[in-house]
């Protein structure tokens, strides 16, 4: 009987005050989503870098074959475009997540018209 009561003590303690720390993450949802997206962008960036290396390898080993040179140039061009798009996407995602976490437009209140009056001049 006392063993059963001993098992219920942590449950009762959680009801009285703050809940016990169970090791769950305490980050906000937008930050968590941003971290996941950044992780995926890093993986895709590594893949794009691998394609850049592959294109360079094709170019070096082409031995003057025009078809292989054009294929290598196309792979390199697409890899560079991919890296640029990934960089822009990472910058945009980080900007949006920071704006959400700070409460809108960078945490600043919207600017009103000069003089502090409304559009009708305070009428």
Protein traits:
123 residues, 3 helices, mainly alpha
Largest sheet: none
Q: Which structural class matches the secondary elements?
A: mainly alpha
Shape: elongated
Q: Provide the gyration radius in Å.
A: 28 Å
Note the gap between the termini.
77 Å
Q: Which range best describes the helical content: under 10%, 10-25%, 25-40%, 40-55%, 55-70% or over 70%?
A: 55-70%
Q: Quote the beta fraction.
A: under 5%
Global mean pLDDT: 80
Helices, by number, come to 3
What does this protein look like?
- With 123 residues, the chain is mostly helical.
- Helices cover 67% and strands 0% of the residues.
- The protein has a domain of 77 residues.
- Helix 2 runs antiparallel to helix 3.
- The longest helix is centred in the last third of the chain and has 36 residues.
- It is elongated and about 80 Å long.
Set down the secondary structure blueprint.
Layout: H1 2-16, H2 29-60, H3 66-101
Helix pairs in contact: 2-3
Describe the structure concisely for a colleague.
The protein is mainly alpha-helical and 123 residues long. It has a domain at 29-105.
